Amino acid sequence: MRILRFDPIPYPLWRRWKPAWLRRVSRLLLRRWMPLDADEHPPDSPEAVTAYLRRWRLAGENLAPVDEKWLMLESVPDAEPRTAPDGRVRLPAQWEPVEAVMLAWPVLYPALWDGHAQMVRALSPVTQVVIIVPAPGWSDAISRFLAATMRLTPGIRFLCLPTDDIWVRDYGPIIGYGADGGRVCVKPVFDPLPNYPQARDNRMARRWAAFADIPVRALDLHLEGGNIWTDGAGTLIVSEQIFYSNPYLSRAGVEAKLRAVFDFHKLIVTPRLKREETGHVDLVVKLADAQTVLVGAAGVFYNGGQQRAAADLFRRETNAAGSPYRVFELPAPPPYLNWGVYPIWRSYTNALTANGRVLVPAFGIPDDARALAIYREAMPGYEIIPINCRASVNGGGAVHCLTRDIPPAASSELFANAPV
Description:
- Helix content is about 25%, strand content about 20%.
- It is an alpha/beta fold.
- It has a single domain, classed as L-arginine/glycine Amidinotransferase, Chain A, CATH 3.75.10.10.
- The longest helix is centred in the middle third of the chain and has 14 residues, at about 200-210.
- It is globular and about 60 Å long.
- The model is unreliable at about 415-420 (pLDDT under 50).
């Protein structure tokens, strides 16, 4: 087990660090591992696409352009959405039907392309996959990369919508259903990191909602999508990070703002991992169904107490319907230090459920097999699919953090795609 590693960090740190001389030095050091300005200077010709893919070892000799019918690229204008009427919004559970799953393609981070391609291959047979790109030239590069390992289908769609980063779970549209059964986009404030460009991420959900013609309900809280789980039937689960993110409000004040917008009856607050930058609940627990949760086992390292407290919480808790939880404990791999500074916590709860499939993070370690076996036991009837997250975890997240599921236009109480 290596405690110290020097892996590429999937965050544009060179845009965050101050003073200016440190940014310049970081650019000189980092350009060996990643194309630092690829989002702002996209490939503008087939030759440029080929050069990018070969420079970053993303393709072999077979680099023929794909048929244009697979490049279903649409540009999202910077427009204002409609305002949703007052009324509380029901967030669906992840085991309810999914219309589409969004991915923000990691054009700055070649090491993540393989994991993203695995997610596209796993998702495209069961739902539409929306690939967000910062400029039109990227649809050609990504299509060529995908075509090398899978058959492209009309269910793969490209949206040109510039963002600041790839963690679309946190800033992407949080879609639920209003009192009339129609979709509503809930838009909290997104600005979790200091000294970091986040304006385009904060704007992304509103732009997409206007494009999709979905009204928006503002939520006056600092909140990321990775810190919300729900069973769709009255239970909302967050970590205590929500109180740190809103220090000007009391605990009661935070809950009042949540209840003013989300339709739930019971709030469960879990511990957050210590020395982990996001504090999100999806690194602590995953809802498998309304009565089943998966949590990280209590390890011997720094966060063992936090993980034990989360497991104990759900063993004594009930959901909004009063039903007790079944608790399954997943492996909790020990952390490592990246560049001697960043503690990296690998979490198997950072998984995505979509239309009968569960995409589970895999890190290339022995614990992967045990985690997948536990998922199969906890979620019988689902297809459990491992996704390579060895590179993405160095940015603090995995499958769930990198995806944003969109429910269909009509609310369904039947949960038709949940295996029984």
